[in-house]
Give the backbone structure.
Amino acid sequence: AAVSIGGNYIAYRYCRCAGTKFHSQALLANGSVNWADAVTSFAVVLAVVAANFGFDKLDYIVGILIGLWIAKIALDGLEKSVRELLDFSPGEQSDRIADVARGVAGVAAVREVKTRLVGRKLLVDMEVAIARECTLGEGLGIVQRLKQRVLLDQRDIDEISVRLATVK
């Protein structure tokens, strides 16, 4: 059990790093399982040591706690997977995208930003307002600059769709 703690912790760190880099729920879930294995191995070592000192009841308590810990990890992984399968919309990124768009020259207002996660990438649909005096060519230039700024800020975006409107 003591050796298992170290091995599982190393596997957890590796899976977490790679899973975050590649936006892979499978690697992140595997990392969570490794973390659970490390924690449960530590609890087993603790329970064995305690049992040798006469605390036999701790073994049952540790067993219950390990079962609850594993159930929590399984439910967390299920929630993340369901969100990804159902095109979950991450709201915090919508706010960041709107902030970046407001900083683009020519954008008078950001009226709407909708994002949804499709697989590992984000699709963005937004509406921005520009001045009435802008020509179509100027508006398209604003859209290009806006897309470039947002894509530089948010690397996990696959596609951005921008609707232009005029300031009322």
